[in-house]
């Protein structure tokens, strides 16, 4: 990093390249990965393949979008995978009990909001550490989701499968819904007072209180949003498959955290955005999956390559953070 | 009291105590004075008492709990979680966190078991397991200390890498047919499992290392205030690096014992909730996510506590799923107690 022995001109040029690499590290990585796959396989850049990538990533995208405000405000939510399981379970149970589709989906969303509210109250009013608490609750909610469905696979009625086949503007409904939610979250974070409060809380929790910002209300709201988005993930997974399995949302929380952090959101709060950031972070994960599948690689290699790319992206991110701190 | 003020006043009072101590010993250099400082550790009497009461109540209400078979059973289950939690405690004391240990366990178990299943020796197989874990531990340590990445992020990505490596290495199948000499590690002498001896001796060793050696004191100081430790000339980078290495070696030990007991290795040997168990066990034992707190003895009690709870839910005939709800709620309760405890200071 310190090219002390090099001549000044080379040194400056090196510095400039370094600057670009470190400020846009993640985007460069994403472009490189895309470039690699599009050279190696002709189908990668086709429109159909793009829809396939979006279709497989939209589940995680919803949850990751919902969690971004939580991270921006300096908190953590690791219980999203279990919330998805609970809401998928509630949808399936109510559907089997003869409820109509809108009300059972509405109840599942309400359950997600309620769980988010519980998380928010525990973290805000009892002042528990947000990461530990939501990790503990992750176990509890997963247990809850398995208890209500008895751990069995439940088939959904046909109207749910028909619902999953609907296309809006030539896009499958899952993609449309998740993109819509992402846009709403983007507006919420960037264009409203609530979003500004989130960033302020993430930057400095102490001084925000002195400014008179309703810290507690914002914190609880952030958790409710995350709960609702996780519930939507669960519902969409269940309707897409046409059945409710006990593996819904398993290990999802760690993937979501990885995607959100790759997208430039800081775990310490105060930094990050939904629309270019989290969206591209999620896409990177699925571009790797899709590209490797297109190359005909053994499916057992995907997680390893994915892990390596996640590591690289996070390393780039920490380097750029380090540079900002220095300058 | 804000945290910065708390640290400073605690720091100054500790230094004053050191001055009193070192007046007799003549003029010692600053680092030595820091090392001589009284260590911030108390065995958590509170947790001990609660655990004792719980055990008494349980053994009165569930008659089959205090049978010899059940106790041996508990001791057999303890070692995997125990090893991981000892490593986690070291990392937490040093102010970091390690999410990758269960995945490192799977990765090293898979490599060692494959070697032994192909006819390799047990000793080399065990060394291979430790070596694989060591590689991942070094990656964690280097990225945290030299790369200055946030521990949560580093270990999260190593978790993915190690998990992926384990799946890739054996193509998501399972390895079995291990040599008899290796399986003996997982067997019993009479009625007592051998693994418990290994586990207890490692636990006592680490308890002593953390309580009585310089290295242990460095961990606490670094976790308490890293900048102060750096300024006073402690080898912060080396010590922090070593916490991640210790944690990964503990994962390798757990891998050896678990593989020997199960007589097979897969990429999904430990459950998804194992990492949460390890963290919560350390926190139950007095560790804090902010670093500088925790001890191996407390962690040991925490491991017993969690294992006994899941054992009791089994004995009472409660389903596994309900057991998960109970465990989650208990973990949150314990975290709440921790908040009350530190709020009182």
Structure description:
The complex is a heterodimer of chains A (327) and B (345). By secondary structure, chain A is mainly α. Chain A has one domain: ABC transporter involved in vitamin B12 uptake, BtuC, CATH 1.10.3470. Chain A contains 14 helices and four strands. In chain A, helix 2 packs parallel to helix 13 (274-295) and helix 3 (47-72) crosses helix 9. Mean pLDDT of chain A is 86; it is low at 1-5. In chain B, helix 5 packs parallel to helix 7 and helix 5 crosses helix 12. In chain B, the strands form two sheets. In chain B, strands 1-4 form a two-stranded antiparallel ribbon. In chain B, strands 2-3 form a two-stranded antiparallel sheet. Chain B is built from 15 helices and four strands. Chain B is mainly α and 345 residues long. Chain B has a single domain (46-343), classed as ABC transporter involved in vitamin B12 uptake, BtuC. The chains are: A mainly alpha (327), B mainly alpha (345). At the A-B interface, helix 6, helix 12 and helix 14 of A face helix 7, helix 13 and helix 15 of B.
What attributes does this structure have?
heterodimer; A: 327 residues; mainly alpha; ABC transporter involved in vitamin B12 uptake, BtuC; two-stranded antiparallel ribbon; two-stranded antiparallel sheet; 14 helices; 2% strand; globular; B: 345 residues; 15 helices
Q: Please give the most extensive interface between any two protein chains, plus how many residues each contributes.
A: A-B, 49 and 47 residues
Q: Mind telling me the CATH class of chain B?
A: Mainly Alpha
What is the C-alpha radius of gyration of chain B, as a whole number of Å?
21 Å
Helix content of chain A: over 70%
Quick one: biggest sheet of chain A?
Answer: 2 strands, antiparallel
CATH topology of chain A: ABC transporter involved in vitamin B12 uptake, BtuC
Q: Strands of the biggest beta sheet of chain B: in what spatial order? A: 1-4
Q: How many alpha or pi helices of chain A?
A: 14
Instruction: Give the topology string of chain B: H per helix, E per strand.
Output: HHHHHHHEHEEHHHHEHHH
Q: Largest beta sheet of chain B, briefly?
A: 2 strands, antiparallel
Cα(first) to Cα(last) distance of chain B is 9 Å
Give the CATH level 1 class of chain A: Mainly Alpha
Quaternary organization: heterodimer
Mean pLDDT of chain B: 83
Given the helix and strand composition of chain A, which structural class is it? mainly alpha
């Amino acid at each position: 990093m310190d090219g002390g022995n090099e001549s000044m001109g080379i040194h400056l040029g090196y510095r400039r390249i370094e600057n670009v690499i470190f400020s846009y590290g993640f985007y460069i990585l994403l472009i490189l990965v895309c470039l690699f796959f599009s050279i190696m396989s002709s189908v990668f850049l086709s429109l159909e393949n793009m829809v396939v990538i979006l279709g497989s990533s939209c589940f995680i995208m919803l949850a990751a979008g919902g969690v971004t405000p939580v991270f921006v405000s300096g908190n953590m939510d690791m219980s999203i995978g279990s919330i998805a399981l609970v809401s998928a379970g509630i949808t399936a149970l109510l559907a089997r009990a003869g409820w109509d589709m809108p009300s059972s989906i509405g109840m599942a969303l309400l359950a997600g909001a309620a769980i988010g509210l519980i998380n928010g109250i525990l973290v805000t009013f009892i002042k528990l550490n947000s990461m530990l608490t939501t990790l503990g609750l992750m176990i509890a909610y997963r247990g809850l989701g398995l208890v209500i469905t008895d751990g069995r696979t439940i088939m959904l009625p046909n109207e749910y499968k028909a619902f999953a086949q609907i296309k809006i503007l030539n896009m499958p409904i899952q993609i449309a819904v998740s993109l819509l939610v992402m846009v709403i979250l983007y507006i919420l974070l960037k264009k409203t007072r609530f979003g500004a409060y989130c960033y302020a809380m993430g930057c400095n929790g102490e001084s925000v209180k002195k400014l008179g910002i309703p810290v507690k209300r914002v914190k609880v709201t952030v958790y409710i949003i995350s709960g609702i988005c996780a519930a939507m993930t669960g519902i969409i997974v269940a309707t897409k498959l046409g059945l409710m399995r006990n593996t819904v949302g398993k290990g999802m929380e760690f993937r979501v955290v990885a995607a959100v952090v790759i997208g430039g959101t800081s775990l310490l709060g105060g930094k990050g955005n939904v629309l270019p950031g989290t969206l591209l972070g999620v896409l990177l994960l699925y571009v790797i999956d899709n590209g490797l599948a297109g190359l005909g690689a053994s499916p057992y290699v995907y997680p390893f390559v994915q892990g390596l790319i996640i590591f690289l992206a996070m390393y780039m991110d920490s380097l750029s953070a380090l540079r900002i701190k220095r300058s | 009291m804000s945290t910065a003020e708390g640290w400073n006043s605690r720091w100054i009072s500790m230094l004053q105590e050191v001055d009193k101590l070192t007046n007799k010993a003549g003029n010692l250099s600053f680092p030595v004075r820091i090392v001589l400082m009284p260590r911030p550790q108390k065995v958590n009497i509170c947790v001990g008492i609660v655990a004792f009461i719980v055990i008494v109540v349980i053994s009165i209400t569930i008659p089959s709990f205090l049978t010899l078979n059940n106790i041996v059973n508990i001791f057999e289950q303890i070692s995997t979680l125990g090893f991981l939690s000892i490593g986690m405690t070291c990392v937490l004391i040093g102010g970091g966190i390690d999410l990758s240990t269960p995945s490192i366990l799977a990765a090293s178990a898979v490599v060692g078991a494959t070697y032994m299943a192909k006819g390799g020796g047990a000793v080399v197989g065990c060394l291979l397991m430790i070596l694989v874990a060591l590689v991942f531990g070094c990656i964690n340590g280097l990225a945290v200390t030299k790369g200055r990445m946030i521990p949560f992020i580093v270990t999260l990505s190593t978790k993915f890498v190690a998990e992926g490596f384990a799946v890739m290495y054996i193509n998501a199948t399972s390895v079995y047919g291990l040599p008899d000499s290796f399986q003996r590690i997982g067997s019993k002498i009479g009625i007592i499992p051998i693994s418990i001896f290994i586990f207890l001796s490692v636990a006592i060793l680490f308890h002593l290392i953390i309580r009585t050696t310089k290295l242990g004191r460095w961990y606490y100081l670094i976790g308490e205030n890293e900048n102060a430790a750096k300024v006073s000339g402690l080898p912060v980078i080396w010590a922090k690096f070593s916490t991640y290495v210790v944690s990964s070696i503990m994962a390798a030990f757990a891998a050896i014992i678990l593989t020997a007991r199960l007589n097979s290795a897969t990429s999904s040997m430990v459950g998804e909730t194992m990492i949460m168990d390890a963290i919560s066990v350390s926190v139950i034992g007095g560790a804090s996510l902010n670093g500088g707190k925790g001890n191996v003895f407390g962690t040991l009690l925490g491991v017993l506590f969690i294992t006994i709870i899941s054992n009791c839910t089994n004995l009472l005939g409660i389903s596994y799923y309900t057991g998960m709800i109970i465990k989650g709620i208990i973990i949150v309760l314990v975290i709440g107690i921790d908040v009350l405890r530190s709020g009182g200071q």
